[in-house]
Amino acid sequence: MTTLDLYGLGVHSRVTVEGPRTDELLDALRAVWSRCLAPRGGEVPGEDLALTLEGDPAPLLQRFTQDVTQAAIKAQRGRLFMFHAGAVTSPATGATLAYVAPGGTGKTTLSAVLGRTHGYVTDETVGFTPDGRVLPYEKPLSVRPKDFTGVKVETSPDELGLAHVHPDAHLRRFVLIRRDASLSAPQVEELGVLDAIVQLASESSSLSSLPAPLQTLAAFLEARPPTLLVTYAEAGQARDLLVDALEES
């Protein structure tokens, strides 16, 4: 039996690995969670997790990623704003763009595309304090293999060559993303604060656990560039538009 410490979303999770294939499983975890092995400081304790490898490791690693994410969200309930979103940082300033969408909408693909030039924050859950400080969650990306049969492959951002998150990550802007395979070019709509809150709230984690959450979120949005609704067919099609949305002064 061996323990492994993981850090992400401002949470410290301790994982107990046991069974006859402990070494194999530890090697796999260290590889795919390569950017979550060192603390950043100030982490809150999360719940302990346990893993035993039996059979194919791919389904186990996929479920484990989901378990770590849910445990981190639970630990930060009432502490952070958290949204179902991917995010990247400007390499120069740490300004962060959070692209919000339901599961299966393309956040991971978009993170892999944007993360080649902008710091990878997460592809799943963005967490930030009321003043906008982002707590990175550099989890493995769940990638569909070419022979996809229902199990994704957990892949380290290092293996994908994604840029490192800026040490001063702070949320600058939200973008709500939608997919429409029929579009030949992305469509962009600027949202007012009320419309943005309504749509963001549906993709939040435990928003009601925060003090005065809607008023605080409204003030947060009013102090930043407008939230955009971007509809696109493929991630590459939207890349330049989203980079411009992050970098514009």
Tertiary shape: globular
| Class per helix and strand makeup | alpha/beta
Distance between the termini: 52 Å
Uncertain parts: none
* Radius of gyration, in angstroms, nearest whole number: 18 Å
- The pLDDT mean sits at 94
Order of helices and strands, N to C? EEHEEHEEHEEEEEEHHEH
Largest sheet: 7 strands, mixed
Percent in helix: 25-40%
The number of E-state strands comes to 13
How many individual helices?
6
Strand content: 25-35%
Overview in brief:
The chain is built from 6 helices and 13 strands. It has 249 residues and is an alpha/beta fold. The strands form 3 sheets. Strands 5, 6, 7, 8, 11, 12 and 13 form a 7-stranded mixed beta sheet that branches. Strands 1, 2, 3 and 4 form a 4-stranded mixed beta sheet that branches.
